[in-house]
C-alpha cells in the first residue's frame, strides 16, 4: 500500500496504510450538505488498535453530536411552549369578533398572520427548521449505524481497492431490500453479500 493516507467515501469503513509508527487509519464523513467533510484519524502499532482508536474518536464525536441534538431539542421545546401560549389574554371581545370574521373570510391568511405574531417566523421558515433538524438526526443515525457495524465486524474488508466496492455493494443491497441504514440491516446485507 502507498505511504499516503486515502480518503474513502462514507460507504467504506476506513482507509488504512502502513506508517513508520504503525498503521494509520483515516475516515472521512461528508454529509453532502456543503458544511465540508469531517475527518477522523488514528495511528497505532496494529490495525486493530488503530481501528479501536478510530472507533473511540467516532464515539466521542457521536456523543458530542447527541449532546448538541438534545440542546437543540430543548430549545425547540421551549420555543413550542412559548408559541403555544394563548393569544394575548388582554384581547377584547371586539378583537376576538374581528379575528373570527377574518377566519371565516380568509382562514389561511389569518392563520399566517397569527402564526407570525406568535412565533416571530413564517410557517415556511418553521418548516425549513423542522426539516433541517430531521435531516441532521437521520445523518447522525446513519453515521452511528455504520460505526457500530464496522466495530462489530472486524472481518469487513474496508481498505484497499475493494473497499469502495464493498461499501457500494452494501448500499446497493440495502436499497434493493428497501431497508434503512441500521447496524442490523448492514449486518443482513453483509451476510447476504458474503
What this model shows, in words?
With 194 residues, the chain is mainly alpha-helical. It has one domain. It contains six helices and three strands. It has helices at 47-83, 93-105, 107-119, 123-152, 163-177, 183-193, and strands at residues 15-19, 22-29, 38-44. The protein has a three-stranded antiparallel beta sheet, covered by helices on one side. β1 (15-19) and β2 form a beta hairpin. α1 (47-83) packs antiparallel against α4 (123-152), α2 packs across α3 and α4 packs across α6. The longest helix is centred in the middle third of the chain and has 37 residues, at 47-83.
Rg is: 25 Å
Mean pLDDT: 79
Low-confidence stretches: 1-19
Structural domain tally: 1
Structural class: mainly alpha
Q: What shape does the CA trace take? A: elongated
User: Strands across the major sheet, in which order?
Assistant: 1-2-3
Sheet of most strands: 3 strands, antiparallel
| Strand-residue proportion | 5-15%
- H/E series: EEEHHHHHH
Number of helices: 6
How far apart lie the N and C ends? Answer: 24 Å
Q: Could you estimate the helical fraction of the residues in percent?
A: 55-70%
Instruction: Count the E strands.
Output: 3
Amino acid at each position: 500500500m502507498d505511504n499516503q493516507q486515502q480518503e474513502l467515501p462514507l460507504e467504506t469503513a476506513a482507509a488504512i496504510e502502513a506508517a513508520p509508527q504503525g498503521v494509520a487509519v483515516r475516515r472521512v464523513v461528508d454529509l453532502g450538505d456543503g458544511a465540508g467533510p469531517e475527518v477522523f484519524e488514528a495511528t497505532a502499532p496494529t490495525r486493530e488498535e488503530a481501528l479501536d482508536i478510530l472507533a473511540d474518536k467516532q464515539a466521542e464525536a457521536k456523543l458530542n453530536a447527541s449532546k448538541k441534538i438534545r440542546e437543540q431539542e430543548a430549545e425547540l421545546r421551549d420555543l413550542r411552549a412559548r408559541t403555544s401560549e394563548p393569544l394575548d389574554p388582554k384581547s377584547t371581545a371586539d378583537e376576538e369578533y374581528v379575528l373570527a370574521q377574518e377566519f371565516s373570510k380568509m382562514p389561511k391568511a389569518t392563520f399566517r398572520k397569527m402564526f407570525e405574531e406568535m412565533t416571530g417566523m413564517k410557517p415556511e421558515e418553521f418548516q425549513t427548521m423542522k426539516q433541517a433538524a430531521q435531516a441532521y438526526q437521520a445523518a447522525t443515525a446513519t453515521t452511528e449505524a455504520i460505526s457500530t457495524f464496522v466495530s462489530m465486524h472486524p472481518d469487513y474488508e474496508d481498505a484497499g481497492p475493494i473497499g469502495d466496492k464493498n461499501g457500494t455493494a452494501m448500499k446497493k443491497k440495502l436499497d434493493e431490500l428497501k431497508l434503512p441504514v441500521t447496524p442490523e440491516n448492514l449486518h443482513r446485507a453483509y451476510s447476504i453479500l458474503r
